[in-house]
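anyone seen this seq b4? input:
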Amino acid sequence: MKKAILALVFLLSVFAFEAHAVVKTQEIKYTVGENSYTGFLAYNDAVSGKRPGVLVVHEWWGLNAYARKRAELLAALGYTAFALDLYGTGKLADHPEDATKLMNAALGDLAEADKRIRAAYEILAKHETVDNKKMAAIGYCMGGGVVLHMARTGVVNLAGVVSFHGNLQLAKKAPASGSSKAKILVFTGGADPFVPTKQVQDFVEVLTTEGVEFELKSYPGVQHSFTNPEATAAGKRTKLPLVYNRAADTDSWNHMQDFFDDIFEERKAKS
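predicted toks r here
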């Protein structure tokens, strides 16, 4: 009987902790020039004090539920995350042609894109929960290329960036400013036709020649968008080589956590 009571007390205490350890989220509207943008902020109120901030850069579809989910997952790990909006409030795509148009409009003028990046960075850096001396960024697909651009150009002050199945050409072409100290971690699919072997080789050659600190991991046989559980269905619908891979998704996410532990020089409590 005593053991049963103790077990019940333990379960109630767990439930009470989980009820308190809620990931708080909010949409934040902001303007850059004359245009409106809406980002998504997430943090865990069970974590005390200031903690590192992580920007999340969305896929070419726009700031959808997937990018928001990644921000929430980062918050559950003890970070404050802000999924920025590169396209503008309400601008989303579910067809490749529309996504391409939105992407080209956003990245066609990198100076303008940098203004949007800086605006989102300032929102995150000034949040009451964030230690603005410990900032990083992660990105997916198009966003993976964008965070590499951020690291290469030093458009904002980052300790490191993580690119998941991102385009590597944007980073390869961008000249290193010399002011960025951001470390780089890249995950790519070995069978990703959007990021072919030659593109990977060129990227490695350029960064190695310039002495940029980076790590790249390629998953054999893995295709594009391998971290997104909705990728396979989207691939069938759009007839694109998008395929989710649970093993690569799990491994890359775990490796990202180790990377953050290293660049922030601390072990984050897992809630």
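The mean pLDDT is 90. Residues 60 and 103 are 6 Å apart (CA to CA). kinda curious what u guys think
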